[in-house]
Automatic annotation (TrEMBL):
Protein family membership: Belongs to the ABC transporter superfamily.
Gene giving rise to this polypeptide: gltL
Record-given protein name: ABC-type polar-amino-acid transporter
Keywords: Amino-acid transport, ATP-binding, Cell membrane, Membrane, Nucleotide-binding, Transport
Catalytic activity: a polar amino acid(out) + ATP + H2O = a polar amino acid(in) + ADP + phosphate + H(+)
InterPro entries to which the protein is assigned, alphabetical: AAA+_ATPase, ABC_ATPase_HisP-typ, ABC_transporter-like_ATP-bd, ABC_transporter-like_CS, MetN_ABC_transporter-like, P-loop_NTPase
SUPFAM superfamilies assigned: P-loop containing nucleoside triphosphate hydrolases
MF terms (GO), sorted A to Z: ATP binding; ATP hydrolysis activity; ATPase-coupled polar amino acid-transporter activity
Name of one Pfam family that matches: ABC_tran
Membrane topology reported for the UniProt record: Peripheral membrane protein
Organism: Nostocoides australiense Ben110
Domain ABC transporter: 6-240
GO cellular component: plasma membrane
Subcellular location: Cell membrane
Length: 246
């Protein structure tokens, strides 16, 4: 059996007196799409951020591709290159063109030549449907386009796994699908993905597994079919009743 690509074992995290992650155990296989859902404040984003060490943990272990997360320095930069992250806000460099935003990491971190980085970036921008915007600046793009650029920028680093922290929550409703469509395409291409989202339609369509978190714990995990039709815990039933009726 191949080992899982991402493994969290007995992970604990506090913010002051608040115990935000309580003995989290989670394994994600290569090529698997895991959707993490749950009420606000359940620890979903914090868990996501520990996987590329944007948040430190007090106890437990996290490994990526069999290696423990590095503390800092060069190894941490390498980890961040291997673990792509797409946030709610697009975090693009406002003073750089779209093309420059996407080529910056590959040139600086992956040491690609400018010409190769630009060629690869154009292919990625085409893949996410914004190749015509390559020479514009972020402020000239819609939110949906900017988020697709943010995905292309992550992909440009050729990551082993992609983390998405509510990537559509800051978007206008009509722009959500254009971003989710790109993510569905990535899932079909075999990208390992951990996605925090409130988009249940996307979870049904793209997930191999749904992980439900509440109060800093993983309460249950199942296939989308099982989870949405027959949740086992009272907390998941209550959560689904609230969100699926709207």
């Amino acid at each position: 059996m191949a080992q899982p690509l991402v493994v969290l074992q007995d992970v604990n995290k506090h913010f002051g007196d608040l115990h935000v992650l309580k003995s989290i155990d989670l394994s994600v296989d290569k090529g698997e799409v895991v959707i993490v859902i749950g009420p606000s404040g359940s620890g979903k984003s914090t868990m996501c951020r520990t996987i590329n060490r944007l948040e430190t943990i007090e106890s437990g272990t996290i490994t990526i591709d069999g290696k423990p997360l590095p503390e800092e320095g060069k190894d941490l930069a390498q980890l961040r290159a291997d673990v792509g992250m797409v946030f709610q806000s697009f975090n693009l460099f406002a003073h750089k063109t779209i093309l420059d935003n996407v080529t910056l990491g590959p040139i600086k971190v992956r040491k690609k030549s400018k010409s190769q980085a630009e060629k690869d970036a154009m292919a990625l921008l085409e893949r996410v449907g914004v190749q015509e915007q390559a020479h514009k600046y972020p402020a000239q793009l819609s939110g949906g386009q900017q988020q697709r650029v943010a995905i292309a920028r992550s992909l440009a680093m050729e990551p082993k796994v992609m983390l998405f922290d509510e990537p559509t929550s800051a978007l206008d409703p009509e722009m959500i699908n254009e971003v989710l469509d790109v993510m569905v395409g990535l899932a079909k291409d075999g990208m390992t993905m951990i996605v925090i989202t409130h988009e249940m339609g996307f979870a049904r369509k793209a997930a191999n597994r749904v992980v439900f978190m509440d109060d800093g714990q993983i309460v249950e995990q199942a296939t989308p079919q099982e989870f949405f039709t027959n949740p086992r815990s009272a907390r998941a039933k209550d959560f689904l009743a609230k969100i699926l009726t709207h």
